[in-house]
Amino acid sequence: MDNTKQLHRTLGLRLVVVVVIGNIIGSGVYKKVAPMAAELHSPGWVLICWILGGIITLFGALSNAEVAGLLADTGGEYAYYKRIYNRFFAFIYGWSLFSVIQTAGISSLAYVFAQSLHSLAAVPPLLPELADVSIAGIFYPFADFNVKLTAILLIIFLTWINSRGVKAGAGLSTAILVLVFIGIGLIILFGLGSGNADLSRSFDLQTSNNQPVSFSAVFAAMLSAFWAYQGWASVGFVGGEIKDPHVNIPRGITIGVFTVIAIYLLVNATYLALLPIQDLEGIYKAGNQIAAIEAVKSFWGSGGGFFISILILVTTLGCTNATILASCRTYFAMAREGLFFRKAADLNNAQVPGNSLVFQCVWACVLVLSGTFDQLTDMIIFAVFIYYGATTLGVFILRRKMPDAPRPYKAWGYPVVPAIMVIFCVALFFNTIIVRPREAGIGMILMLTGIPMYWWFMKKNARNQEPVEIETHA
Questions:
Q1: Which of 259, 262, 236 has the alpha carbon at shortest distance from 248?
Q2: Which residue stretches of 194-346 are H helix?
Q3: 249 CB contacts (<8 Å, ≥6 apart)?
Q4: Where is the signal peptide (predicted)?
Q5: How far is 200 from 222, CA to CA, in rounded Å?
Q6: How far is it, in rounded angstroms, from Cα 167 to Cα 286?
Q7: Which of 47, 201, 318, 426 has the lowest CB atom count within 10 Å?
């Protein structure tokens, strides 16, 4: 393919909002209230952490929106960091997306989809004789292979859908999002309207273990909340395909994040009203239960379990699709500059980066086989908040470097709001190292593999003696 062909700007504000919300609402809205209850032992504190997570997410989104409005381009933060920092830092970010942040997100979402599907229709185990085969005693690629194969097939199918064109992928996300909104709305309406609900319980600050809530427990619980809020910045990845991106990206991010915060507060207040905190702690300890399913069963019985399982299927399908759609654009932008595998720079006949989709698909499938799903969400949040902090710090840097540049949107509450976001990101970084050292260590190792890869790509460029093409679409 001719890698001089350009992406087409076909996404308006409505589809921008769809991409933002579709990248956020996934498994966390159903699963994360239980681990938060296990950390905090108090329904009121669980709701406070959802609120705090939403506020911090909003602060990050408002800060990101200023940078996105100023520097909107395909690749999102990868394109921004070249202007704010340097090419090396931008590459490390892009490589972190590929090695863990986005591909692991795709893998874990697809795995939850597969688990939900198999809970509805039991499938005989595949290759059970190989279940104990391991790599270094850490990875068991054939354990639960029937679930993993389903997840892999979903990733391949959605990759094919998105290779047909950006509007095809965004159109599927729109249809799924409508179903998700209806489903979550029914849970809130019938849950709070049932005789089992006690809304006052949702705001009870008393702990079940009669111990005060610690600072570290709040941060650990917020890691779970942040997984549920994760994904709002992904719309920047498709900046080269958005109409009037300097206006529509900031607006889309702000509308999308406000919408998700409202939904999360309502639905989690419903879960807490339906299930005592001790029940939620038990759900977490059981390991194979989902809080939303137990909450809906409390007022709709076994039929409610079937309903919520279908809703989880639809939601994770939509979030997986939205993540696949957006993420591959960063690798495309990197490849155009010789900082990724060159084939990823090609556009297919549908004017989408088909080869970049394939690279992403292959690595996400490998991560499915790795089986490290219990660690993925905290690891992803640890990694991504490093870059949320870097983008927010960019607001201050760009105000000094480009003081007279037109800004379609200026961060609300500057400089206080961006400063709070930066300080919080630093605090979360160190707290995660203390309370989740394994997840922090794995995340750092995967990100730091980008250092030798950067020099390898640079050396390959020098050997080929090809000029580096830096394109902008602002």
A1: 236
A2: 215-229, 245-274, 277-286, 291-335
A3: 16, 65, 68, 69, 72, 235, 236, 239, 242
A4: none
A5: 22
A6: 41
A7: 426
Domains and CATH numbers, the chain: 13-464 (1.20.1740.10)
* pTM for this prediction: 0.78
Residue 48: count of CB within 10 angstroms of its CB: 18
Are the C-beta atoms of 454 and 93 separated by less than 8 Å? Answer: no
pLDDT tens, position by position, 168-224: 556 676 778 888 889 999 999 999 999 888 999 999 998 888 888 888 889 888 888
pLDDT digits (tens, 9 = 90+) for 123-153: 777 777 776 666 666 566 667 788 889 999 9
C-alpha distances in Å from residue 341, one per residue of 98, 264, 335, 356, 419: 12, 39, 6, 9, 37
Q: How far, in Å, CA of 7 to CA of 292, rounded?
A: 40
Give the number of other CB atoms < 10 A from CB of residue 293. 22
Binned at pLDDT 50, 70 and 90, residue 471 comes out as very low
The answer to whether 159 touches 126, Cβ cutoff 8 Å, is no
Per DSSP, the residues of 362-404 read: HHHHHHHHH--HHHHHHHHHHHHHHHHHHHHHHHHHHHHHSTT
247 vs 408: CA distance, rounded Å: 6
The partner residues of 242 in beta bridges, in order of sequence, read 11
